[in-house]
Amino acid sequence: MENDYQQTWKRCLEIIKDNLNDDLYNTWFKPIVPVSLIDNELTIQVPSHFFYEWLEKNFNELLWRTIHEILGPQCNLKYSIVMDTNEGKGAETITLQTNGGELGKRNAHQTIPYNMGDQNRHGFNPYALPGLQKVKVHSQLRENYTLDNFVEGECNRLARAAGYAVAQHPGTTAYNPLLLYGGVGLGKTHLANAIGIKTKEFNPDKTVLYVTSEQFMQQYSEAGRSNSTNDFIHFYEMIDVLIIDDIQFWANRVQRTQEAFFHIFNYLHQRNNQIIITSDKAPSELIGLEDRLISRLKWGLAANLEAPSVETRIAILKQKLINDGIEMPYDVIEYIAYSINTNVRELEGALVSLIAQSSLNRKQITIDLAKEMIDQFVKNSARDITIDYIQKVVCDYFNLSVDSIQSRTRKREIVQARQLTMYFAKKLTKSSLAVIGAQCGNKDHATVLHACRTVSNLAETDKTFRAYVEEIEKKFKE
Ligand code: ADP
Ligand code: MG
Q: In this structure, which residue's CA is closest to atom 19 in ligand 1?
């Protein structure tokens, strides 16, 4: 004859089964083993802590309704949890006592509808309610986007450091959410992936997931179509470190996706799970995103990725060459770095084209080949002459180091080179006097204005000087 508790549990299961589809029932109720029934307190054993939490969160109301029906109002439910130990599933159990009335209500709004149809459910695989074996989520991180490969510079120092801190202690630093923002091709996707990879290195147990905002949106609408929005949300709520790339994609659209994300965000944030977001704009400029979402983005740290300086551009090029095992003369590297200042993606593009050119045509990589190629390359993207480049041309002309212009020295030849740089910067770029001054040895706008006048005057009165100006000017047209 079966014991009381087994009988009781069997009757409970009948009710539960009536309320759930087979998938859910088989995944979450079949594995439960009844243990005892003492003084109207039913103890059931579940295979893991996660399993218990899942039941509590998703089936709590159903469970309570059921045991009330079977055992009457004065009843209690206890969970006995099989602990995972290093030696495998241990016999050790902990017991959690729950208080029916309270819990019964607590998560009611998140409860999965009991009569969920099970058509289509298999078509939507990643978000099907995870059985225990499916909890391992594929992180979708791009392996080659590591932190080691991400060259550090003034332009990304804060973002990189914050990312490192987050990777060490996801969710528990002040950088939650961590928002990485900056223009196209400045390394947002790379850095976000790198943080994810580092997080896993430091915290192998954490579930990390990278998705683009577009994927998230598609999954959400897919879930809506197949009636599994709750599954979708629960899936995301299980993630310890959630990385969403290019959130600006949602601006002025996909209201409901934004709402779903808002709920997931709150859920994760409350539980100290880490959220990492990238965007091409600062939070205050993200017009078209829901206000409450924007205000959440401001909770943590917004770190800007700026355009890299010429030194950083050279370092990035060198690193790519080392990674690819390719050698290239230094003056060629420098030439590329000086010519392309818009973003790192273009910088890489130029490098790749040059390598391709040289190997296709079996030509040596020389400065001439680089010039030929870069001119074609940048014609399309309307090459702008930069202050960096002007400095380099002027310094090369006088055989000075670029650093000397930045120094405070008042040596005549250096003052002259600095003034020429300022003059050409004013003439050939759209930069303001203040910006030019800041980049040429930290001078103010009045100094730049004075330099421009001096150069004009000298060029009119001094023949040698005029020759300098003309020759240098030619170099910019080469
Ligand atoms: P974004 O997402 O901001 O548009 P990406 O992360 O896609 O930019 O970066 C564009 C390319 O530039 C990628 O190939 C990336 O590896 C490279 N890149 C960007 N910043 C760096 C950096 N600091 N060091 C090395 N590579 C970089
Ligand atoms: Mg990107």
A: 187
Nearest alpha carbon, ligand 1 atom 23: 151
Query: Is 107 among the domain residues?
Result: no
> From the alpha carbon of 190, which atom of ligand 1 is closest?
6
Q: List the structure tokens of 333.
A: 């590297």
Domain that holds residue 154: 113-305
| Residue at which a domain ends, from 384, 405, 437 | 384
DSSP string, 170-218: TTTSS-SSEEEE-STTSSHHHHHHHHHHHHHHH-TTS-EEEEEHHHHHH
Cα 182 to middle of ligand 2, angstroms: 10
Total of domains in the chain:
4
Q: Block means of pLDDT (10 residues each) for the chain, length 478 residues? A: 82 90 80 88 79 79 88 84 49 51 34 30 38 64 95 95 96 94 96 98 95 94 92 93 96 91 95 97 89 91 94 96 90 91 88 85 87 73 74 92 86 92 90 89 91 92 91 84
pLDDT at 110: 28
371 and 399 part of one domain: no
- 242: β partners: 209, 275
Conformational region of residue 120, where left means phi above 0, alpha means psi within -120 to 50, and beta covers everything else: left
Could you say which ligand is closest to the alpha carbon of residue 312?
1
**Cβ–Cβ < 8 Å for 20, 114:** yes
| pLDDT (0 to 100) of residue 98 | 55
Q: Are residues 321 and 287 in the same domain?
A: no
How far, in Å, CA of 27 to CA of 131, rounded? 6
In testing the pocket of ligand 1, which one of 344, 348, 351, 352 has its CB within 8 Å of the most ligand atoms?
344
Q: From the CA of 145, which ligand is nearest?
A: 1
Same domain? For 176 and 300 the reply is yes
Structure tokens belonging to residue 68 = 């009330």
Q: What is the CA radius of gyration of the chain?
A: 32
Alpha-carbon span 125 to 290, nearest angstrom: 30
Bridge partner residues of 185 (DSSP): none
List residues bridging with 367 in a β-sheet: none
8 A C-beta contact, residue 60 and residue 37: no
Contact between residue 338 and residue 393 where contact means Cβ atoms under 8 Å apart: no
CATH of the domain at 380: 1.10.8.60
CA angle, corner 85, sides to 80 and 86, nearest 5? 170
Longest dimension (CA), the chain: 117
CB within 6 Å of ligand 1 — which residues? 149-151, 156, 182, 184-190, 316, 344-345, 348
- Residue recorded with tokens 């040289």: 358
Please, are residues 390 and 428 in contact by the beta-carbon 8 Å criterion? yes
